[in-house]
Write a structure and sequence with these properties.
Shape: globular
Oligomer: single chain
Helix content: over 70%
Distance between the termini: 25 Å
Order of helices and strands: HHHHHHHHEEHHHHHHH
Number of strands: 2
Strand order of the largest sheet: 1-2
Strand content: under 5%
Structural class: mainly alpha
Largest sheet: 2 strands, antiparallel
Number of helices: 15
C-alpha cells in the first residue's frame, strides 16, 4: 500500500463526488422544476455508463479479463449495483430540488440503514456505543428533513411540512424525501457489498456499474425525463458531459486507486470530505443558507457516521501498546 497516494486519490475522488450537485445544476439550468424532479435519472445513467467504460478499461489494462470471466456472478453483486444506481439517481434529483447540504447529509444516512439491515438479516450485533452513534444519525435525519424543527417561538415542533413556501425550492419537501430515499438505497448498497468479499475490486467495479447503469436506465424509462433532455441547450450538454467525466470517470477512477492503497478505516474517514466540498459549494456558489436545525442535523449525521470509524482506528492503535 502507498498510503500517501491513496489519501491523495481519496481526496480527489471525494472532491469529484462532492461536485455532483453543483455540476448537475449547471446541466439543468433553465429547465422547469417538473423536469428537474426526474432528470436525475438520466444524469445518473450517463455517469454510471461512463463509470462502466472507465472500469472496463481498468479491467483490460490490469489484465483481469480472464479473472472477470471466471468470477461467478451472484444476486448480491447484482443488487449492490442496482442499489447504488438508484441511490445516485435519487441523490441527483434531490440536489436539484432541495439545498445541496440537505441532499448530501441525507444520503450519508446510508450507514444507519446498512447497520439495521445487517442486524435483521445477518444477525450482526450492534454494541451500545454503536447504537448511540446510530441514534445520533437517526436524530440528525429527523432534523434535516424537518420532522423535528424549531418554530418562530423558539419551541420544538414535530411533523413534516409539505407546503411549498420556498420560492427557490418549490419542491423542497419532495427533494428532502428523495435525499432520504437515496440514503436508503445507499444503505442497501453497503449491505449487499458486505457479501462476496472474494470478488476482485476491479471485477466487482465492472459488474457494479453495469447493473447500476441498467437500474438508472430502467429508472429513466419509468420517470421519462426525455422532455427535459430534449430541452437541453449546448451549455446544458456541456455541463452534463463534465458531470459524466469529472463525477464519473475521474472520481470513480481515483476511488479504485484509493481502495487499493488505503485501509478501510482511513478510506471511510476521508470520504466524508465530500460533505465539506458540498457545504462550500452550497455557501459560496449557490448562496444557500443553513438553518439552525439543518446545521445540527448535519453535524449529528456526519458525527454519528465518523465516530465509529475514529473509535475503531483508536482501538486498533491501542492494541499493540497493551500487548
Amino acid at each position: 500500500m502507498n498510503k500517501k497516494l491513496g489519501a491523495i486519490a481519496m481526496l480527489l475522488s471525494a472532491t469529484g463526488m462532492g461536485l455532483v450537485g453543483t455540476i448537475s445544476r449547471g446541466a439543468t439550468a433553465g429547465l422547469a422544476h417538473a423536469d428537474k424532479s426526474v432528470i436525475g435519472s438520466f444524469l445518473a445513467f450517463g455517469r454510471m455508463t461512463v463509470g462502466l467504460f472507465g472500469f472496463t478499461l481498468i479491467l483490460i489494462f490490469t489484465r483481469k479479463v480472464g479473472l472477470f470471466h471466471r468470477t461467478r456472478l451472484s444476486t448480491t453483486v447484482i443488487l449492490g449495483g442496482v442499489s447504488i444506481g438508484l441511490s445516485l439517481g435519487c441523490y441527483i434529483s434531490s440536489t436539484l430540488m432541495t439545498t445541496m447540504t440537505n441532499a448530501v447529509f441525507l444520503i450519508y444516512t446510508g450507514p444507519l440503514f446498512c447497520a439495521l439491515l445487517a442486524r435483521i438479516f445477518r444477525k450482526e450485533k450492534i454494541s451500545v456505543l454503536s447504537g448511540a452513534f446510530l441514534s445520533l444519525v437517526f436524530l440528525g435525519m429527523l432534523l434535516t428533513i424537518g420532522i423535528i424543527s424549531i418554530n418562530n417561538d423558539g419551541n420544538l415542533a414535530f411533523g413534516l411540512d409539505l407546503s411549498t413556501g420556498n420560492p427557490k425550492f418549490p419542491q423542497k419537501s419532495l427533494g428532502d424525501l428523495l435525499g432520504l430515499l437515496s440514503g436508503v438505497f445507499y444503505g442497501l448498497a453497503l449491505f449487499f457489498y458486505g457479501y462476496r468479499k472474494d470478488v476482485d475490486s476491479v471485477v466487482r467495479g465492472v459488474w457494479n456499474f453495469f447493473w447500476a447503469a441498467c437500474a438508472t436506465l430502467a429508472m429513466s424509462i419509468v420517470l421519462r425525463p426525455w422532455h427535459g433532455v430534449a430541452s437541453f441547450t449546448a451549455a446544458n450538454w456541456m455541463w452534463a458531459v463534465v458531470l459524466f467525466l469529472v463525477c464519473g470517470l475521474f472520481a470513480l477512477g481515483f476511488l479504485v486507486v484509493a481502495g487499493r492503497n488505503l485501509p478501510a478505516v482511513e478510506y471511510s474517514t476521508i470520504s466524508y470530505w465530500e460533505c465539506a466540498v458540498v457545504i462550500v459549494c452550497s455557501l459560496l456558489i449557490w448562496k444557500e443558507q443553513l438553518s439552525p436545525t439543518g446545521i445540527i442535523g448535519g453535524l449529528l449525521i456526519v458525527g454519528g457516521g465518523l465516530a465509529p470509524i475514529v473509535v475503531d482506528a483508536v482501538s486498533r492503535k491501542s492494541r499493540p501498546s497493551m500487548a
